[in-house]
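Let's do one together. I've listed all components of the complex below, 740 residues spread over two lines.
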Amino acid sequence: MSVDLDRRGFVLAAGGAIAASAIGPSALAQTAGRKVGYAIVGLGGYGLGQIIPQFKNCEHSRLVALVSGDPAKAKRVAAQYGVPESGIYNYENYDSIRDNPDIDIVYVCLPVSMHAEYTIRAAKAGKHVLCEKPMALSSKECEAMIAACRQAGKKLMIGYRCHFEPFNLEAIRRARAGEIGKLRYFRSEHGYTAGDPTAWRLKKAMSGGGSIMDIGIYALQAARYMTGEEPVAVYAKETTDRKDPRFREVEDMIEFQLEFPSGVIGSCMSMYSANRNQVLLMGDKGRIELEPATNYSGQRLWVGKGRENEITPPQGPGKNQFAGQLDHLAQCVLENRTPIVPGEEGLRDIRIIEAVYQSAREKRRIALKA
Amino acid sequence: MSVDLDRRGFVLAAGGAIAASAIGPSALAQTAGRKVGYAIVGLGGYGLGQIIPQFKNCEHSRLVALVSGDPAKAKRVAAQYGVPESGIYNYENYDSIRDNPDIDIVYVCLPVSMHAEYTIRAAKAGKHVLCEKPMALSSKECEAMIAACRQAGKKLMIGYRCHFEPFNLEAIRRARAGEIGKLRYFRSEHGYTAGDPTAWRLKKAMSGGGSIMDIGIYALQAARYMTGEEPVAVYAKETTDRKDPRFREVEDMIEFQLEFPSGVIGSCMSMYSANRNQVLLMGDKGRIELEPATNYSGQRLWVGKGRENEITPPQGPGKNQFAGQLDHLAQCVLENRTPIVPGEEGLRDIRIIEAVYQSAREKRRIALKA
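Okay, and this is what the predicted structure of the assembly comes out as:
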């Protein structure tokens, strides 16, 4: 076990280090050839478009089941990806996954309002869970999810793929190594232009909130993993054109400032009305910039006084961040380890987001509990 | 009089438009050949290094007097720039400038703590005043300066040179023309690495405060002239290492958020421990970026979705921002017009800075009076 964990438990090992070191020789021998089986719950844009195609890039993970409310779609996807008909489930017979020994992990790729229910049902069915971000509608739901998995003796991981993304890992490594001196300031802007007003992401009952739940959470996550600190207070200001049909129920833009114990200030902007994806760390000796920072691909990284020194990092822990994420939980299952982004990590973000909303509503600084 | 003023009075005319339109044909005829005489008060880095060399680039301004506490330096500079010995003053005989008819305008390039006194004495001596930013130590001082100039019937302008800088003018013009759609978000980071701990800028009694008074004020000014709005509330967070010998008396970093009536959020960072000079305007159809934004020279401007479209603006109102600024007040004197950046503009910034400090101190949002 030589994985280097920093004080927040972020795996700093680059390249194949996680894969190589996470499993000792004896464990590797025991699990040689064994691929952990995933059931994907939800065949929407993310599950179908991003996750399912990644199993071919995995070393320790395989797709064994699908859960969908659309039988024809499920059948088509199953045929395309070699999932047996016996691995096709719907939301009614979902609990019978307990009888399918091929399924080790359930990956919940559903609207946020369904995360808690389908995570808890998976745990009760004796399965480990990978749940997409944001973890749930509320911290109360997150706590219930953690409790259910703990009670069932099952692992719970949140789909924070950037923890497996080489440019982000390299930026963290260089920040921790002191390459920009003492870190003073973190800034991130994350946004995209929301389209269809009928999308579930724009319905509060399904999404739990607007841009911060969906895209601003990347800025919040990055503020925490880049600084390696937990914020002690937040202040936020929301601005939304409520006459815009997209934003009748959820916020468009919300700016939030995070106070960190060391004195680092985190300044984050989340938006549904502009495209933006960047991270800046400013130290007293230079800066680290990522733009795009957290996209599915195409990341760029600069370290120095400006953008004169562009960095190409070593390969991350998987063929890409998606495969790295899938294989990480698979390895945790094989090895009985705790994932680096467990349920508690998702809960922390939701608690901070709740404080951000409270701050915007009450127009005051909200202190966060340690 | 065809100068286009927007609602905040920002001169949007580009190129030579200000010079050409500000003075009608008859006025031009009357003032043909007449150059307005400036006395420079303070032969420090800015007055001597930046301002005095610019008179050769002016059309309507000439250097006629110097005020300095160092007679040898004053004599040397006078000889170099063709100022007669009769135009050399010190801080004791300063008030006798009233007897020098060559002096129309006094340009106060002194530490902030001396701005009010030397502005008021100039007005009492019957001279117009150009005073460097920040205008003074406090809004109370600013009010006294405005009152003194008003009482003397003299003009008062603040040295906000960016209002004469072509890249900034072009950015404003394009933002107002709707090139990035509806403006939603303004962000600016301004900072540099402070050096010598004994510098007057780091002594609170002389500077009035730290980075925001010196460099962060550019972010504040830009937030106002770029949006064309006045903020209605501020929230600020300071972070300073008080053990650093540079920061025993004044702040290092201060982040401040501005709320604008239209819903635009302004996010500004001011710092004395990192080099940064940039402005970003984000609209629902694109963005405008300036980096560096407010340096003495070397500005760059991008308009579009990212940085693919770099803009070279038309020539500004002078050979450069310094000459444009000097000639603007000269023309205002010749033409009896109010400068576009009068004392009231400096007062507005100081009032907002006072609210920023109050917010940081009291850890709460401060509403600004209209």
